[in-house]
Amino acid sequence: MVVLFHGLEGSSDSHYAQAFADWAVAHDLNFALPHFRGCSGEINHGPRAYHSGDHQEIHWVLQRLRSQHQSQGGQILVAAGVSLGGNALMRWAGLHGAAALQSADAIASICSPLDLVQSGMAIGKGLNRQIYTRMFLHSMKPKALAKWAQHPGLFDKERLMAASDLYEFDNVFTAPLHGFKDTDDYWSKASAKPLMKNILMPALALNALNDPFVPASSLPQKADVSTSVTLWQPEQGGHVGFAQGHWPGHVCALPVEVGGWLMAACGQPLDTKEAHHG
After folding, report:
1. What is the mean pLDDT of each run of 10 residues along the chain (278 residues)?
2. Residue where one domain finishes, among candidates 152, 169, 189
3. Fewest CB atoms less than 10 Å from the CB: which of 1, 12, 211, 217?
4. The model's pTM
5. Does some domain include residue 278?
6. Do both 176 and 223 map to the same domain?
7. Is 73 found in the same domain as 11?
8. Alpha-carbon distance 178 to 191, whole Å?
9. Which long-range contacts (CB under 8 A, 24 or more apart) does 175-180 make?
10. CA-based Rg of the chain, rounded to a whole angstrom?
11. Residues 135 and 249 in one domain
């Protein structure tokens, strides 16, 4: 079974999710994409949403899927996380150490902001602020307001409406709703990078050096991780891009390479020389 955790405001409709699903079908693999709370098209009922360090959610989902998979005769379960989902997945692996192998056999993070402080600062500046910050807030603010309607007074609604970047949004909404003092506390404590020396399962961290809001200077180096962690840091790829072929291109190479690594890491190598779909 292949489990994919999506990124900020992602879903099963995201381009990378579709590419991974196609790849799994081509190899006759079970595939699951859990939606973080509020991302499936239906709002959750509790006074919380999801966040970049949501390792408890990762743990519950992987335990449940592992149990279900084994009850149906399955043996191998691997997991990948994209952007936010990858940071949460790596944080989970770092916190659980060897016990993480009870829930998954290998994991991978894809274009994840493993240092949330540096990535948070990068997305709030220049062109990133004009493009990505606006895009995320366009969907995140209405969801937060729907949460306020469920639980009136849960946060300061006026401050949320005035938030013009993710730092302010997280200060008003994400941090206090999930047990953090403020944005600085959240970004610092929820980052996976400080825990990657504790990972004791096969793990791949893939980050392009030209990712617009995951600065190359923030990426983990060999000294920052355990010997169980493999670092892939190609020069090109952008943020969950790695496009191939003629314009407009495709992203089929991403699941081929990452999925192939995951399967090989747990002794189930696949043919990675397959033809890509146009």
Report:
1. 97 95 96 97 96 97 97 96 98 98 98 96 86 91 97 97 96 98 98 98 97 95 98 91 68 90 92 45
2. 189
3. 217
4. 0.94
5. no
6. no
7. yes
8. 14
9. 177/47, 177/48, 177/49, 177/147, 178/48, 178/49, 178/51, 178/54
10. 18
11. no
